[in-house]
């Protein structure tokens, strides 16, 4: 059975297909019908859609209905559970943990099979800790690089938001206000990631650091500790849960 994986965020949908050469992309909800038609057309037919969602019910219903119109026979969703594939969730109320965090935690621990810090650098930055026995220890959520810079520069006239300045900016002290802002943002994230890694290493000297997400390259290039950058860790977590039948089949909305 062939699958397409969908990560439903608040503003857009990311998709991934592991069929021969992996394919992936993203689309906005406004262009959902056309995008799904291209992804799942006659030459790219798939039987199952696996998705992880943080969107409200009405948008999820719209999305699942669009999938059914494309001919998917099975729709399955990823959910946070108290345990999955050897990892135990730190949250007492597992429904309060974001599904993307759970997916990268499960995938990260499965890859390392030991103590690990999993850092996902996207719109929000998340840092999660798992010990060698698979116990999730909790984590941190904070603004990602772009969100942090935007918040800092709101209401200012002298520095314009220009995310291209984040590319290769490094962490040397800025000698003008613009550099001080962008270098400072990367330096702050670098410092937090390294501090988090060293914290877990105090209890387990074999702990590993995994970095994923859209801004992983920017931050990883500045790190002064050993790390591994892993692409598509959210989708890897989805695939692992689906392969282990740890997903929930969605019935048609009434």
Outline the fold blueprint.
Blueprint: E1 3-8, E2 12-17, E3 23-28, H1 32-39, E4 48-53, H2 57-69, E5 74-77, E6 83-84, E7 87-88, H3 99-112, E8 116-121, E9 124-130, E10 136-143, H4 145-153, H5 177-203, E11 208-212, H6 216-220, E12 228-229, H7 233-243, E13 248-249
Parallel strand pairs: 1-4, 4-5, 8-11, 11-12
Antiparallel strand pairs: 1-2, 2-3, 5-13, 6-7, 8-9, 9-10
Protein described:
With 254 residues, the chain is an alpha/beta fold. The chain has helices at residues 32-39, 57-69, 99-112, 145-153, 177-203, 216-220, 233-243; strands spanning 3-8, 12-17, 23-28, 48-53, 74-77, 83-84, 87-88, 116-121, 124-130, 136-143, 208-212, 228-229, 248-249. The strands form three sheets. A six-stranded mixed beta sheet has the order 3-2-1-4-5-13, sandwiched between helices. A five-stranded mixed beta sheet has the order 10-9-8-11-12, with helices on both faces. A two-stranded antiparallel ribbon has the order 6-7. The radius of gyration is 19 Å and the shape is globular.
Arithmetic mean pLDDT: 89
Strand content: 15-25%
Biggest sheet features: 6 strands, mixed
Radius of gyration: 19 Å
Taking pLDDT < 50 over at least 5 consecutive residues as the criterion, the unreliable ranges are none
Give a brief description.
The protein is an alpha/beta fold.
Key phrases:
254 residues; alpha/beta; Nucleotidyltransferase, domain 5; six-stranded mixed beta sheet; five-stranded mixed beta sheet; 13 strands; globular
């Amino acid at each position: 059975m062939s699958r397409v994986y969908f990560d439903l965020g608040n503003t857009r949908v990311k998709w991934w297909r592991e069929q021969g050469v992996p394919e992936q992309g993203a689309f906005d909800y406004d262009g959902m019908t056309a995008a799904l038609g291209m992804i799942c057309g006659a030459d790219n037919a798939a039987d199952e859609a696996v998705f992880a969602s943080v969107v409200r019910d009405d948008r999820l219903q719209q999305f699942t209905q669009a999938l059914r119109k494309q001919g998917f026979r099975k729709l399955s969703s990823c959910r946070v559970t108290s345990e999955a594939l050897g990892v135990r969730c730190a949250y007492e109320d597992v429904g309060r943990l974001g599904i993307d965090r759970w997916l990268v935690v499960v995938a990260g621990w499965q890859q390392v099979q030991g103590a690990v810090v999993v850092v996902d650098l996207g719109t929000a930055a998340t840092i999660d800790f798992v010990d060698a026995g698979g116990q999730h220890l909790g984590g941190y959520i904070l603004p990602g690089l772009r969100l942090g810079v935007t918040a800092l520069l709101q209401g200012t006239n002298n520095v314009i938001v220009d995310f291209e300045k984040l590319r290769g900016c490094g962490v040397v002290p800025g000698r003008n206000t613009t550099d001080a802002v962008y270098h400072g943002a990367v330096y702050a994230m670098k410092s937090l990631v390294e501090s988090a890694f060293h914290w877990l290493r105090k209890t387990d000297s074999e702990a590993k650091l995994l970095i994923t997400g859209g801004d992983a390259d920017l931050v990883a290039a500045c790190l002064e500790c050993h790390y591994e950058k892993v692409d598509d860790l959210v989708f890897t977590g989805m695939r692992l849960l689906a392969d282990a039948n740890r997903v929930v089949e969605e019935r048609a909305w009434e």
